[in-house]
Amino acid sequence: MAKALALNVSNRLQPIVAAILCLMAAQLITASCTPEPAPYAARVAIIR
Fold first, then answer.
1. pLDDT for 7-41, tens place per residue?
2. SS3 track for the chain
3. How far apart are CA 25 and CA 21, in angstroms?
4. How many whole angstroms separate alpha carbon 9 and alpha carbon 5?
5. 42 pLDDT higher than 60
6. Which CA distances in Å does 3 have to 9, 11, 13, 14, 29?
7. What angle is formed at CA 11 by the lines to CA 9 and CA 17, rounded to 5 degrees?
8. What is the pLDDT of residue 20?
9. How many Cβ atoms sit within 10 Å of the Cβ of residue 31?
């Protein structure tokens, strides 16, 4: 009984765990990319 329940819960959680792992991998990939340079207007100090 307990083994069947554990397998049922495991089968339900597999897609969720796969989605979380995919999101973590996507974050690692995007974090390793170099950021695009900011536009020139964003880097210029505004003097008033």
1. 777 888 888 888 999 999 999 888 877 666 666 65
2. CHHHHHHHHHHHHHHHHHHHHHHHHHHHHHHHCCCCCCCHHHHCCCCC
3. 6
4. 6
5. no
6. 10, 12, 15, 16, 38
7. 95
8. 92
9. 7
- Both tokens assigned to 27: 């974050």
What six digits make up the tokens of 41? Answer: 């207007």
Question: What length is written for the chain?
Answer: 48
What pTM was computed for the model? Answer: 0.53
Q: List the structure tokens of 25.
A: 């991998």
Burial of 14 by CB count in 10 Å (0-12 exposed, 13-18 middle, 19+ buried)?
exposed
